[in-house]
Amino acid sequence: MIVGPHHRTPPATYPPTTTLRLMASGAGLIPLGLLLLLCLIRPVHAQQVTKPVGRVTEVRVEGNASIAVDQILPKLRTRAGRDYDERVIEEDLAKLLQTRWFAEVQPYFKKDAERGGWIVTFVVVELPLIQSVEYRGMTKLKKKEVEESTGIKAGARADNIKAQLAADQIRRMYQDKGHEWAEVRLVEGGQPNDRKIVFEIFEGPKSKVRSIDFTGNSYVSAGVLRTKLTSKTAILGVVGGTYHRDDIDEDARKLREYYHGQGFFEVNIRPIVRPDPNMGDMHVEFVVWEGVQYKVRDIKFEGIKYLDEPQLREGLVLHSGQPFKDDLRAADLKLLQTKYGNIGCIDAQINIERRYADPEKSPGVVDLVYNIDEGSPYQLGRLIVQGNTRTVEDVVRREANMAGLVPGEPIDQQRMDKFRQRLGNLRYFASSPDQGKPIEIKVVNRRPADQPYGSTLMPNLDEVIRTRLQSPGFDDGPGAM
Predict the structure, then answer these.
(1) Cα(18)–Cα(414) distance, integer angstroms
(2) What was the pLDDT predicted at 429?
(3) Does residue 99 contact residue 91 with C-beta atoms inside 8 Å?
(4) Maximum CA extent, the chain
(5) Which residues of the chain have pLDDT under 50?
(6) Which of 106, 272, 363, 373 could form a disulfide with 123 if both were Cys (CB 3.0 to 4.6 A apart)?
């Protein structure tokens, strides 16, 4: 049975042995939405019921005026037919307060002699409703936009903690729009019983970046460094150039990342923002200490078995005496992956490690170590074609052969990419999701090296070679490759 609103104080009821009284407003709350659980221990006379044992026969809600019982009960885990559990009661109290509907929640219980169990009653005190909200001095933000962000508007539940936090939210909204000097003060609505909320706002001018300068850079010009920035100066003092402090910090990070990619691992970049006498205008200066540009002293390879060092070193652009640059390192990494692909090591993993030399004996020197997990070399056994309902299979096999995907030869990603490209050039198959399921090429049925073609015999390679020179009508027989 479920009972709706009744009188405030439940008759003939007992609070739990440890009465849990939770309050949602006033000085009892921790800021930032943290709930404070107050455990008030009340002694119970010996002749009274101590701790309920048994099932709950009924759950009631009292004290609610504007919030229907049907809205409250689904929030509770305490239900008729379940055993009485004080830990569940505690969770229910916290859940009700988290709704921001109530200022206070108090549980009671009493013996249900007729049905042989316990009646649990939650007595609530609703938070008052906000009667009005006033934003004094607000012209740059829309009221609806602020209400959606803060959740504060006339008719909503009055919550003094939420109102206090809203002042910071509104200030951040101004900063996001470039009003760096904006100030927002809550002048009314910060007390538990306040039903009117008033914000006093100083918007200030919209901040603009008037100039961006660099000091201390010698390796690269200011013009190059400007291309790395998100922040831009205002054109003719009007268009663009909105100042955001977060953008300046992000720009400093991007500059450090750029210098690291050029081998300046000890670079230090400090942004300095100076207000202009004309309020709202900002002058930004990035003070750069470049440090030393590190160079490669030696290159080492660890974990290699299928390829030796001379083979791996051949063609590398980042070698002894070269500045440690990210673009060169990326090019070398791609070259090494290609070399392993050429021998069929499609699972090869290459990690690059920097090992610094003794800074006193060899300042600005780093050794480059390639930690390589080669995996196993694979050869193509069979080519399985699926999903071709209109295109002759021989056409697909011909393009595979022309891309180098030939039984008995190493299989690698480059050959598979070339195969996909050749199939796409035919314009027979979907090449993007909007055209249908695109071409998918993947490696399946991996087998040991002593069974490269599974249980079947090795294909006739003479026929495979002739396929490259024949028309699509050439038939290599069922089950080939």
Answers:
(1) 71
(2) 66
(3) no
(4) 104
(5) 1-12, 17-49, 463-481
(6) 106
Nearest partner of 383 among 357, 360, 404, 358, judged by Cα:
404
Give kind and range of the element (H or E) at residue 462: helix 461-467
Distance, in Å, from the CA atom of 388 to the CA atom of 396, rounded to the nearest integer, reads 9
Q: In this structure, is the dihedral angle defined by the CA atoms of residues 334, 338, 339 and 341, taken in order, positive or negative? A: positive
Q: For residue 300, give the H/E element and its range.
A: strand 295-302
DSSP-derived secondary structure letter, 292: P
Give kind and range of the element (H or E) at residue 413: helix 413-425
CB-based contact 111:49 (threshold 8 Å): yes
Amino acid 15: pLDDT = 57
Please state, in angstroms and rounded to a whole number, the distance separating the CA atoms of residues 316 and 296.
12
What DSSP string runs through 324-346?
A: --HHHHHHHHHHHHHHHHHTT-T
The pLDDT tens digits for 158-207 are: 888 889 999 999 999 998 888 888 999 999 998 887 889 999 999 988 88
- Three-state DSSP at 168 gives helix
CA neighbours closer than 13 Å in the CB half-sphere of residue 89: 27
pLDDT score of 436: 60
Cα–Cα distances in Å, from 211 out to 218, 234, 287, 370? 20, 8, 14, 44
Q: Tell me the backbone φ, ψ of residue 309, rounded to 5 degrees.
A: -60, -45
What is residue 36's predicted lDDT score, i.e. its pLDDT? 34
Helix (H), strand (E) at residue 464: helix 461-467
CA distance 289 to 268: 5
Question: DSSP label at 66?
Answer: S
